[in-house]
Every structure is written in structure tokens, then in C-alpha cells.
Design goal:
The chain is 78% helix and 2% strand. It is built from eight helices and two strands. It has a two-stranded antiparallel sheet with strand order 1-2. The mean pLDDT is 87.
Length: 237
């Protein structure tokens, strides 16, 4: 089969199955956006704890980072979806919570797994940003009457985020790629959609090429943006 024939087959698969592929693509983007938003919240808190003056807080945040960075994401997804429901149910005696049975839907387990994993890397990116801020700014803020937490949240953290933006962009790109793994727990995102279609028509290579191109449509601009931001930060320092 020549290159033109193969290209024709790829175009034909797109024409026939673009609704399902776009649904999977949309779900991949939703997973990425939600997980990154939650990871930024968790990562910010953990980064503040990692650079805290109190050793117990540094220990807790350090343990979190080491556990989630040094175990495969696939194992973490299996844990949240298959192992967590094995825990005994807890009766909270609260009207809104009631009985907690730990059973998660595939989408919930995917969000939780991607968030926890990505937040560990986000923590380290933000920690490097926090450490790059001159300590004199903290002393100046405290001299003006700000509390320790006010200084961290309103003076140090905003500057640290700006420094960490290039790294955070790379982390976002990695998260977008890592989202393909959630297909193993039943989430039909882009890779899952392509896999379901190829199981029916056996056009495996063509469909995975389409999926790969769709991933590249997001990851290549993110890689370019990350490199550009790194150069800009290097100039402004």
C-alpha cells in the first residue's frame, strides 16, 4: 500500500468516525483542564508547606511528593478505581455526606489520579519558584505588619508562580499526554475512542495515527510556549 493510499485511509477514518473521536478529544481536554486546576490548588498548598519553617509540615509535603512522583501513574489509577472501594465504609453521621463507601466512577477516579500525580510535580515547580524569591522581600513584608501566611500568599506566592510558569506549561503538556492512561479504567477519552473503533474495523494503524496527530495538535504548541517562556524568563532575570 502506497503513501497516498494510506493517507486516503486515514482521511476516510476521520470522515467516518470524527464524532466519536471529537467526543473523546473533548473528554481528554476536560480531564486535562480540571486535573490541572485542582493540581495547581494542591500544588500551591504543598509548595508552601515544603518551604515552611515548621519541620512536620515539610515532612508531610515531602512524603506526598516522593510517594506520588515515584510510583507509576498507572498503578495510582488502579488504586483509586479498583483498590480504594475495598476500604470499609465510613458512616459520617452528617446529612450531606452520610455513608462513604469509597466507590468512584471511572471519571472521578481519573480526575483524582491525574490530580494527585500532577500535583506532586506542580509542588516541586512552585517550590523552585518560591526559593528563587529574595528573602529580603519576606522580611520587608513582615516589617510592614503582614503575618507569615499573608506574606507567603500575597507577596511570595504570586512571584513564585510567575517564575514557575515555564515549568507549569511543561507539566500541563505532560498531563495532556498522561491522560491517555485513564482508558485502562474505562474512561473513553481520545485514545479509548480510537481503540474502540479499531476493534470494530481493524484499522489500527490509521486510527492511532489520527489520535497521535490530535495529541500533537496540543502538545507541540505547549512545548513551543514553554520554550519561549523559558527564554523570556532568562532574559528578564
Amino acid at each position: 500500500m502506497g503513501l497516498l493510499d494510506f493517507a486516503g485511509d486515514v482521511v476516510e477514518q476521520i470522515r467516518l468516525h470524527y464524532p466519536a473521536l471529537l467526543r473523546g478529544y473533548s473528554l481528554t481536554i476536560i480531564l486535562t483542564v480540571l486535573s490541572m486546576a485542582f493540581a495547581l490548588v494542591v500544588g500551591t498548598v504543598m509548595a508552601l508547606l515544603r518551604t515552611s519553617d515548621w519541620r512536620p509540615l515539610r515532612f508531610v509535603s515531602g512524603a506526598y511528593v516522593e510517594v506520588f512522583r515515584n510510583t507509576p501513574l498507572l498503578i495510582q489509577l488502579f488504586f483509586w478505581f479498583f483498590a480504594l472501594p475495598k476500604l470499609p465504609s465510613v458512616d459520617t453521621h452528617l446529612p450531606l455526606l452520610g455513608m462513604i463507601d469509597w466507590l468512584l466512577s471511572p471519571f472521578q477516579a481519573a480526575i483524582l489520579g491525574l490530580t494527585a500525580y500532577t500535583a506532586a510535580y506542580t509542588t516541586e515547580a512552585l517550590r523552585s519558584g518560591l526559593r528563587s524569591i529574595d528573602h529580603g522581600q519576606t522580611e520587608a513584608a513582615r516589617a510592614l505588619g503582614l503575618t507569615y501566611m499573608q506574606t507567603r500568599m500575597y507577596v511570595v506566592a504570586p512571584q513564585a508562580v510567575r517564575v514557575a510558569v515555564p515549568l507549569l506549561t511543561s507539566i500541563l503538556s505532560a498531563l495532556f499526554r498522561n491522560s491517555a492512561l485513564v482508558t485502562v479504567i474505562g474512561v473513553v477519552e481520545l485514545l479509548g475512542a480510537a481503540d474502540r473503533i479499531q476493534q470494530q474495523n481493524f484499522q489500527t494503524f490509521e486510527l492511532f495515527v489520527v489520535a497521535g496527530v490530535m495529541y500533537l495538535a496540543v502538545t507541540l504548541p505547549l512545548a513551543w510556549a514553554s520554550a519561549r517562556l523559558e527564554r523570556r524568563m532568562a532574559v528578564t532575570r
